User: Fold these one by one.
Assistant:
Number 1:
Amino acid sequence: MEDRKKKVKSILVTLPKPENDKNPYSDLAKKLNLKIDFRSFIHVEGVPAKEFRKDKINLADFTAVIFTSRNSADHFFRICEEMRYDVPSDMKYFCLSETIALYLQKYIQYRKRKIFFGKQTAVDLAEVLKKHADERFLYPCSDVAAEETQRFLLDNGYDFTPAVLFRTVCSDLSDLADVFYDIIAFFSPSSIQSLYKNFPDFKQNDTRIAAFGATTHKAVLEAGLILDIPAPMPDAPSMTMAIDEYVKQVNK
């Protein structure tokens, strides 16, 4: 691994470009004089109402919804609109994080609804879910739903129904064919799949791979790639912190 520790000048982050320069990556670019580009390797497409009807899920059967992302909220309210279903005012919302909970203001009057949120995972919601164990939960998700949340709900015997409302799709990356980056940062196994769908003959060579989360680490290794920068780590809980530590070591 030592011979891979070469100077870093450019980084590709496989996420959508932030709306403004007030983000950790902009700060990192300025701090270490780096070129940081953004390009989402995957994107989300909604399942149309016509297709959703085939699953025979009756929205009126549910008393609560569990949101694991803003995408899940977007597509829940979209499908309700397409199905001409008026969400009752006493519907309860359980969100994995406060960020997702606050996002619901886009669709509902926040102060007048029953909204609960955790810190980041379903386990954080364990106590509040226990108090509402009799609810019938709808779980809007993608075709690659987060296994940890589903496993938690199953293990604890909650009455929940997964509803696939959107799909994760590989983006067209053909314009990156002849572009080289010192580091590519991945955040999901789907992004690794997209890399190889777009570039079946991809060779890592001197490109350093950064990956966030255990499932992404696994996907990197299963693809036969070298994982140079794993995150999170005890001393680097975020991707930007992990990259910061690495670049400071190799750019001495």
Note: The mean pLDDT is 93.
Number 2:
Amino acid sequence: MHLLRDVEKYLKSSNTPAARFGREAMGDPRFAFDLRRGREPRARTVERVRAFLETVQ
């Protein structure tokens, strides 16, 4: 899944902590950490994260 790659790219380019991203994008400070550990988000979650990334980039 490319979602993790896109999230990591955003975190690095924006210098945003993973917990802050998760809190702002999903209301879940563990979200990025869970993706790194293999979490497979639902299609709606992927859409929501991508929409967030489009608004902040």
Note: Residues 3-56 form one domain.
